[in-house]
Amino acid sequence: MDFVSIRIITADVARLVTFYERVTEVRAEWATEDFAELRTPGATLAVASTRTIPLFAPGSARPSENHSVITEFRVDDVDRVHRNLSGFVTDIVTEPTTMPWGNRSLLFRDPDGNLVNFFTPVTPEAVEKFAR
Q1: pLDDT tier for residue 59 given thresholds of 50, 70 and 90
Q2: How many CA atoms lie within 13 A of 83 on its CB side?
């Protein structure tokens, strides 16, 4: 089995895609006006309109109601990314902080309120974990 992507359902695909393009510096690939993907070497972030939900199961997902998932991106220098996003990302949850497990993390919310973590491994153990 391969983990391929995570999909965010939103009422405003263009707004969310623009946000993620800016914070990740990855250009989205649009399939339709209701669906776009931002592909990275490790995984894909898909953004889809609420109009796609009935294709799966009506009422099965609701935008802007995530309170349990954090989408994470490993970056080369979380402090530099934080400086670059200053003034653009308006909902910072936690400034860059070194976590007990060895990652330096920046936690913020996207325009729909979804949690996003940008992190850089900084301890030898964390660096080794991601070198595999």
Answers
A1: confident
A2: 3
pTM of the model: 0.93
Sign of dihedral through CA atoms 106, 93, 85, 10? positive
Instruction: Measure the CA–CA gap between 35 and 29, rounded to whole angstroms.
Output: 9
Domains with residue ranges and CATH for the chain: 1-56 (3.30.720.120), 68-132 (3.10.180.10)
Q: Which residues pair with 98 in a beta bridge?
A: 104
SS (H, E, C) 79-108: HHHHHHHECCECCEEEEEEECCCCEEEEEE
